[in-house]
Amino acid sequence: MKTALCKLVSICVLNALIFSALQAQTCNFTDLRLNSQSAVNSFSSSCKTINGDITISGTDITDLSPLQNIETISGKLTIQNNPALSSLSGLKNLTTAQHLLIYTNNLLNDLSGLERLKFVGGSTHIRYNAGLADLKGLDSLTNASTFYITNNDSLTSLAGLGRLETVSDILAISANKSLVTLNGLTSLNSVSRINIGENDALTNLSGLEQLTSVSYQMNIMSNKKLTSLHCLTSLNYLSEAYISDNDLMTDLSGLEHVGSVYWLVIGDNGGLTSLNGLNNLTSATNFIIRYNESLTDLSGLENLTNVGWIQISDNAELKSLSGLGTGTNAGRGSANGRISALAITGLVIRNNPQLTSCAIAAVCDFTSTGEATITANGSGCESQDAIEIACSALPVTLTHFKVDAENGTALLRWTTAEERNSAVFEIEHSLDAVTWYKAGEEDATGESNALVHYQWVHFTPASGLNYYRLKMRDLDGSFTYSQIARLRFDGQTAAMVYPNPVSDIMVVENSKEIVQLQIISTEGRTVYETRSVPDAIPVKGLAAGMYQVLITRQNGTVQKQRIAIF
After folding, report:
1. How far apart are CA 254 and CA 238, in angstroms?
2. Domain named Secretion system C-terminal sorting: which ranges (predicted)?
3. Which of 315, 323, 400, 474 is the most exposed place for a label (fewest CB within 10 A)?
4. E-state strands within 497-535
């Protein structure tokens, strides 16, 4: 009996000790404020789980090591206005917090001390920390809900966020004036909303190469040095996007995998000259293009097939709607004799003072049956009536236009499905898609209801980017433009024979390396052939016209070049 009683007492004492220990490990606070180093020092070292909020804010706080046993905070941890605090190393065992707010701690260089933090259930705010250079210390964080990284003047990169994969609500990176790269976000693949704005030193979006989905909204705005969106090439799901006030961005390259959007606003981008990058966009429920003062046409939107509502307004240099839904699916069949690849259900075109060419198939189709808002554009686009008159006079339905490099020349090919009173195709060339000059012309068929194929060769393209468009002129002088095609020459693509065009003697480059040379007419007939290739070949006896030179080299390579003999 005595032995049994002793055992019972021992068990009771042990249970009491365990209960006491558990009680000591969990601490409950409504709003605990540690506003001095002495208050931090007096914090109970037995607290591992905190139920409630803790605020650390004091001018003399330098050491958080008395908090080193805290593992979980079910409320909000605020570290704010600590001018002497240079390290968070005292929080080395923290794994979970409901909210984390780190404000105005100017001696913090990074977030070392938070290496075990894996989960923040609510909001994370890292703001106004003047000395913060990177985010090292958040290396275990894999998921976040609301994450603001703003107004940290010394922040140069996002190193430390390498394991962050998803942000379920918003990731805001803004007003960090020294941030030059987003490197550090190497695992981020999905966000609901992402805001990147007012980062004055940011030149590109390097670091977002793995981002595939923005399920709600993307805002990229007011980044003074941002030149491109190139690093968004994995992005294939985008619901809403607002891209504005990025004056050094010339196009939208990087969005090539985006096929559809609900809202898309492209506005106030002063250097934007084309919408290239949206080449695979087929559907937009709401689309606004406004206040882009260098935009001259809408090249890049050739494959757009459905728009619920589109507004094109206040683009000071916009001269043509060329490119808008003018892909290879355009053809015949609507009330005005044409159908477009693009179906529009709402249309606003206003305050584009240089816009004089609006009679493209998609606009013609819409204005033939629907009411558009058309006002304050250039002559020919000043009203819906003016556009309808221009549409009725369109000489050509163009179904295909492309340009390819062919041994130092640019070969332009286009196809028409219908021609009415068409006179000529003027080929225009540009190096910047702004200033154009006439490079040549090709006579039109005039009247046709069948497919007609054309081609024309530009013998002197420039090194770098070359832009081409067709000016399709009617017999009465009216005209419309095609979409813009572009072609890059790397400066190493050289002609094998010259001059081109040639009238007398054709010079052959590196003739000793050539085992066969043929000159073939457009009918496919070989008019000259030799296996003993001289440095110069007389061509005076050949009829004027276009020919193809086929050269076979010693290594078996066959090269082709078009020439003109006159």
Report:
1. 13
2. 497-562
3. 400
4. 497-498, 505-508, 514-521, 526-530
Looking up tokens 């007003």, which residue turns up?
Answer: 175
Q: List, for residues 45-70, the tens digit of each pLDDT value.
A: 899 999 999 999 999 999 999 999 99
What the block records as the tokens of 271 is: 């250097």
Look at residues 235, 241, 229 and name the one whose alpha carbon lies nearest to residue 202.
Answer: 229
- Domain boundaries along the sequence of the chain: 262-329+336-392, 397-489, 497-565
Placement of tokens 């490099």 in the chain: 405
CATH number for 497-565 (one of 2.60.40.1930, 3.40.50.2300, 2.60.120.260, 2.60.40.790): it is 2.60.40.1930
Kind and range of the H or E run holding 385:
helix 384-392
Contact of 408 with 425, CB cutoff 8 Å: no
* Residue 481: how many other CB atoms lie within 10 Å: 23
Beta bridge partners of 461: none
Same topology, domains 397-489 and 497-565? Answer is yes
How far is 29 from 25, CA to CA, in rounded Å? 13
Nearest to 173 by CA among 141, 140, 206: 206
Mean pLDDT of 526-540: 91
Residues in the chain: 566
Rounded CA gap, 493 and 488, in Å? 10
pLDDT, residue 8, reads 45
pLDDT at 478: 67
What is the 3 state secondary structure string of 401-442? EEEEEECCEEEEEEEEEEEECEEEEEEEEECCCCCCEEEEEE
Residue 66 in 3-state DSSP?
A: helix
Could you give the 3-state DSSP secondary structure of residue 500?
coil
- Whole-angstrom Cα distance, residue 299 to residue 445? 27
Residue 544 and residue 503: Cα distance in Å, rounded? 8
How would residue 395 be classed by pLDDT, with cut points 50, 70 and 90?
low
Cα–Cα distance for residue pair 150/124, rounded to 1 Å:
11
φ, ψ of residue 31 to 5 degrees: the values are -160, 85
Residue 559: CB atoms within 10 A of its CB come to: 13
**Separation of alpha carbons 183 and 10, rounded Å:** 59
Answer for the pair 326, 300: CB distance below 8 angstroms, yes or no. Answer: no
Count of Cβ atoms closer than 10 Å to residue 22 Cβ: 11
Q: How far is residue 525's CA from residue 541's CA, in Å, rounded to a whole number?
A: 15
CATH superfamily of the domain spanning 397-489: Immunoglobulins (2.60.40.10)
- Residue 174: per-residue pLDDT: 96
Q: What is the pLDDT of residues 511-521, one digit of tens each?
A: 888 899 999 99
Instruction: Evaluate if residue 551 carries a pLDDT over 70.
Output: yes
Q: Give the pLDDT confidence of 239-263 residue by residue, as tens digits.
A: 999 999 999 999 999 999 999 999 9
Sequence-ordered list of residues with C-beta below 8 angstroms from that of 325, at least 6 positions apart, any chain: 301, 302, 304, 305, 340, 341, 342, 360, 361, 362
pLDDT higher than threshold 70 for residue 107: yes
